[in-house]
Amino acid sequence: MYIQGIGIISPWSGQGSEPLIKEDHFAIIDPDYSQWIDLQQIRRMSRVIKMGVAAAHMSLSEANIEAPDAIITGTAYGCMADTGIFLQKMVTQKEEMLAPTAFIQSTHNTLGGQIALKLNCHGYNNTFVHGNTSFESALLDTQFYLAENPHSKVLTGSADEITTISHNILTRLRRYKKNSVNPSELLNTATIGSMGGEGTAFFVFQALKDNRSIAKLSGMEMIFRKLTPEESLNPILEFLKKNDILPAELSLLITGKNGDIRDDYQYDLAENSIFQNVPKAAFKHLCGEYPTSIAFGMGIASRAIQTGKLPSEMLYSGQPPKALNNILIWNAHTNMRHSLILLQKC
Amino acid sequence: MNNNMDNLMAELKAQIIEQLNLQEVQPGDIDNDQPLFREGLGLDSIDALELIVLLQQHYNIKLSNPADGPEVFYSVRSLAEFITAEREKAG
């Protein structure tokens, strides 16, 4: 399937800029939301809804369509801030006199619903809440939808936000480092935990290529089992074989390296064997670690294919690729789930 | 009496702005007699629920008859008059 439009709101504004860090985590750079959402609606929207709606608008605008035939969303945390507000009020107000807005807006499918309401889109609308593979699950559903409806256009994306409460909990669970580090140093820290992040990325997909197509999403696969570095080689090679690509034909490998010593070792063997001569890049030192961060990685990789230019901040090994024809994104989530995405020039 | 009513209306305006997250509205922008719903401030049914919660939270007043809603919530003045009447009833 082909990517026709991309909308990203993230902590990083692009080549030559530093990602935005607030306190000890990556934080999105808020655009002026009033250019997409009227003030009457903005007042009820939490940050994650605003940024999701805005990214959806950006991708639709690039694809030059008013409304899609289907809206498919992936989110792990949903509307975390409103959930926190509602639960806190339940405690402090002893479950009485609870204001409705935070509750209404706290469900995971609020974002997909708000986008549909705004676009007056009555088509297929689904939200996937599958932890670290929520965005990939939304992509899989998009592939199914387009297989059945080849002339449709699908708006697919993800959004996750970080709040003080969620950051504290995940730090206690050692997913995030106790002390923040400079983003440019994140991948070299070799300590436990990554740095928290947040963001949203939306894409317009269609089955057929046309002159607006940005990149081709040729393959996507999820592996739901723990793999040793040795065991991870075969599934990757099989995935590439299925898509008629040899490892050496890859222009770039983008990994989900996040600065957590418990995660990053998983890539080392493949990087030094089957991908030895392939340039390597990362993206989580630009957006932070969050369950749907791969959507951000896919967004900037697609843009790199479109423009033929890879932001220099991404590359951590090898020479800058001369051409960007085939990009493999490999994200190993805590070594329990592996995601593979193959993007190609179209 | 008039001073009390003015103070109550000023207090209500600040509470409405906070409860409904009316980011671009200042208390001075809300006229005492301006309709709160539809053409006035443009509030809707979810806001009506928020205002019911506001009445309970800040004034310990329950709107026992939902049919009174449109009249009570018509404007800041009607809301203030309702609160004053309920307070007098309670002694």
Write the layout of secondary structure elements.
The complex is a heterodimer of chains A (346) and B (91).
Chain A: E1 2-9, E2 21-22, E3 25-26, H1 39-42, H2 47-63, E4 70-74, H3 80-92, H4 100-104, H5 110-119, E5 124-128, H6 134-148, E6 153-160, H7 164-172, E7 199-206, E8 215-223, H8 229-242, E9 252-255, H9 261-272, E10 280-282, H10 284-287, H11 293-307, E11 315-317, E12 326-333, E13 337-344
Parallel strand pairs in A: 4-5, 4-6, 9-10, 9-12
Antiparallel strand pairs in A: 1-7, 1-8, 2-3, 6-7, 8-13, 10-11, 12-13
Helix pairs in contact in A: 2-5, 8-9
Chain B: H1 2-19, H2 45-59, H3 69-72, H4 76-90
Helix pairs in contact in B: 1-4
CATH superfamily of chain B: ACP-like
Shape of chain B: globular
DSSP summary: helix tally of chain B: 4
Q: Identify the CATH class of chain B.
A: Mainly Alpha
Helix content of chain A: 25-40%
Estimated radius of gyration of chain A: 19 Å
Shape-level CATH architecture of the largest domain in chain A: 3-Layer(aba) Sandwich
Number of strands of chain B: 0
Q: How would a textbook summarize the main sheet of chain A?
A: 11 strands, mixed
How far is the N terminus from the C terminus of chain A? 10 Å
The CATH architecture of chain B would be: Orthogonal Bundle
Strand content of chain A: 15-25%
Polypeptide structure, described:
The complex is a heterodimer of chains A (about 350) and B (about 90). Chain A is α/β, with parallel strands linked by helices. Chain A has eleven helices and 13 strands. Helices cover about 35% and strands about 20% of the residues of chain A. The model of chain B has no long low-confidence stretch (mean pLDDT about 90). In chain B, about 20% of the residues are buried. In chain B, helix 1 crosses helix 4 (about 75-90). Chain B has a single domain (about 1-90), classed as Non-ribosomal Peptide Synthetase Peptidyl Carrier Protein, Chain A. Classes of the chains: A alpha/beta (about 350), B mainly alpha (about 90). Chains A and B meet through helix 1 and helix 4 of A and helix 2 of B.
